[in-house]
Every structure is written in C-alpha cells, then in structure tokens.
Amino acid sequence: MERIGKYAILRQLGQGATSTVYLGHDDFARREVAVKVIAQEALQDREKGRLYRHLLINEASLAGKLNHPHIAQIYDAVLGDDLSYIVMEYVPGGTLESFCAPERLLPLERVVEIVFKCTRALDYAHRLGITHRDIKPANILLAPQGDGDIKISDFGAALLNDSNQSRTLVTGVGSPAYMSPEQVQDQPLSHQTDIYSLGVLMYQLLSGRLPFHASSNYGMVYQIVNAEPPPPSTFRAEIPPELDAIVTRAMQKSPEARYRDWDEFSHDLAQSFRNQKLPTRHDNVADSEKFETLRELPFFREFSDAELWEVMRLATWSDVSAGTLLMRDGEAGDYFCFVVGGEARVAKRGRTLGLLTPGDCFGEMAVVARNVRARGADVTAQTDSRIITIRAEALRHASDTCRMHFYQGFLEVLARRLSMANARLAAL
Question: Is the entire prediction scored with pTM above 0.85?
C-alpha cells in the first residue's frame, strides 16, 4: 500500500490546480484522515510560488490549535524540498457547493442551522486571533447525511493577529464573489470581513444565486463596492423578511453597519426560530435554539461552546403537556432533567415542596449519589413545558471537563437548596 509519511493512502478524493487530496489512514491514531499534498511545481513557480508557500505555512501553523466541533482539525503538516502536505480531519459528506443550485436548495431552517454553526465556529477562531478570509461553500464540509453537522475548512488564507499581515491580496487569496468591500480594496481587515462573506454564503444558500454577477474580476469588484443586491426573497418567495434583514445587515458595505460581532449575528439567527418565523419540525428543536437556550441558563454559564455542543448531543429535548408526570416518588431512575420552558411542581404525598421554573434541574441525585436511585418526590408539569433529559450513563461518557462542570453545577444546586431549607427551619 502506498504511503505518504506515516499515513497509508487509501484513495484519491480530489484534485485542484495546486494540490491533490487523498483519503489516508493514521495507524497510530486509528482514524481516517485527509492528506492534502501540495504540487512541488506550484511551490517553485516564479510568479505565485511565494504565495503558495505562504498559504501552506499559514495553514501548517494552525495544526493542533483549532479545536471546535465545527472546524475541521489540522492534525499534522510537513514542509519539505521534495514533499509538502497537510493532514486534516476527514469529513466524508462533501461540501455546500452542491446545495447552491436553485434546484437543490436546502430547507430554510437547515440553512439557518448551517449559518448559525458557522457563526459559532468563526467566533471561536476570532477569539484566538484568526480571521478566515475565504469563507465560501467549497470550504464548508458536511458530515454524513443524517448527522447534520458542518465543519469549516481551509484556513490557508487566514489572517493571524500575531503575524505581520495586515492586508490581503485580491488576486490569489480568497474568492472574489465572497469578498467584502474592504477586502477587494486591499484595506486592513477584521473579523467583519468574514461576517460579510458568511452573509454572501447565506444569500446563495437561500436563493440559489450569488448577490453579484460579472464577467470579470474588475466588474465583480465594482459591484461589491458600489451596487446593492436584491433581497434573497426576490428569488425565493417563501423567505421571510427576517432572513432578508439578517443577510442585508451581514452584507453592509461599511463594516460599522454590519453585525458588530458574531454573538449579534448568532442571536438574530436563533431569534428567527424563537419568534416562529420559520417552519420547524414539531418533533425537533433546532440546534441554534438549543444552543442559545443552554447558553442563557445559569447552570451552564461556565461551559465552553464545545462543551455546550457536547451537552446538546447528550440530551433529549421534549415538549410536555400540563399535568404530565415527569418523575414518580419512589421509582428508580438513572436520569436527570432541566426545565427550560414552563413550570413544574415538586410534591411529596400530595404536599407541594416547591415550584421549578426555567433553569431549574431535578433528579440530579441519580448522578450525585451513587447508591441513591429512587426518586424522592413527584415532579409534574404545571404548565405546558419544555424539558431536557440527560441519562447518567451518557454523562459518564462525556468529556472530563464537561463532567466537571456538571458536578460543579450540581454542588451549587445542592448548596442553594440546603441554604433555603435552613432558612425555612430558622423561620419556624
């Protein structure tokens, strides 16, 4: 079997003008990887060799630094006189390019989900001092069908705040159709250039066309700087005004008029679900809504973005009607719950012990006390409610930091309840 370095090569995945990507296997880590081999003739080219080498070094410098659920990890990099390659996480679902054609558009709620996840990943990169500079459908990878996740890839053109770079090149770095006005004019860049590019990507995923069309790069640059595109709903009548407004704000000519930061962008996307402006499946809560809901709960304030995504994968979300018995006194149970909408009543032999409101958890003794599995009270939905359920076994398989934050949260809950109980006793 052919090998590139320590990686066994299984087959070719694709080929571009300057590189070839192979599916490889890392025997030591026991995982499939994507190996991008850079053509040596491209690195030695008189005109663009310096640029290609710079992009390669740029991407290689990020190996092991970008650890986020929605960023394709860079595992390894080799830059040699005879062979240069980057080893990346293998994501087998293809890219978003195939969903940019009018006949293959994704449902509106799926587009919002994808863009929301991109905002969280790019916010993470921004906090590390990294601006991607080449956000486009070809650089958004899709997990296998049914998984629903995306991964941002190709940070070769990234602007690193700790480098001497302060400007970009219109030719050779980035894709003109997705560039911001400041990028095509070779002006200093910030994270807001990525906000603009993600706005263009969202426009294309919603409408099936780019906001600007031109026969030359010069014509494209002129339109990006001077023209106003029609709203996406011009080409897809079902798009609500709220999504038109989000795209319009992200694509403002002036960075000051765009979203100030990624949190603002994320918030508006999540609100498009919360305000019920988009059709969501009755039995499925959107990932963006889940993320925003968890982020707002005090229990999860110390959780990182990556840990919140982990919690989302562990948890089951359900909407229950008023009067639904959620836990029964004396019954065994290996799960705990959070109220995220509505109210629930805690009672013992018919006597009310307390009322649970959004943010409160119950049933946590199934995790805190190893030998206690029987429930100590009835818990009943007082109103129509939304409940998150997490099984103790699932939590035991969570990452160490995620588990640690759960245990810290449980200790705070128990301390608060003990304090309230002492206050009641003192009042007797």
Answer: no
